[in-house]
Design brief:
With 133 residues, the protein is α/β, with parallel strands linked by helices.
């Protein structure tokens, strides 16, 4: 089974890119096949560290949405790490829900895991509960 690690937070400066970087570095050092997605098209921070493995995705573009979710659910590609920027948070999970991504990924032997990073903002916990449900 392959892993699709989705690191997300609805707020900026929560540490999600740091966690995505640490996870990508771990899998790279473990000699895993690795694909990294950075959804911050304006400042793709992961691209600087994982040049050959990182795809910069603009979730406002349908073609990028298709590339992201098709690759995340594809069998046999190894580990996938997605850094969901706070600007793309709602769009990412809307598309994920509408395409029934979880069922498709599991049918392809890909295990999607969401790492929700909360912060001190009042709605952070509530949004995490909504995401879980």
């Amino acid at each position: 089974m392959s892993l699709a690690a989705i690191i997300a937070s609805p707020h900026a400066r929560s540490g999600k890119t740091l966690l995505a970087h640490a996870m990508a570095a771990y899998f790279m050092l473990a000699n895993s096949k690795l694909i990294v997605f950075d959804t911050d098209a304006n400042e793709p921070k992961l691209k600087a560290h994982f040049i050959d493995q990182t795809h910069v995705i603009d979730l406002n573009r349908v073609s990028d949405q298709m590339q992201l979710f098709d690759t995340l659910a594809a069998p046999g590609l190894g580990t996938r790490v997605v850094d969901v920027t706070h600007q793309a948070y709602r769009q990412f999970f809307r598309v994920m829900r509408e395409t029934d991504f979880v069922s498709e990924a599991r049918a392809q032997d890909v295990d999607p895991v969401i790492f929700y990073v909360t912060d001190r903002q009042a709605d952070g916990f509530e949004q995490g509960v909504q995401l879980r449900d």
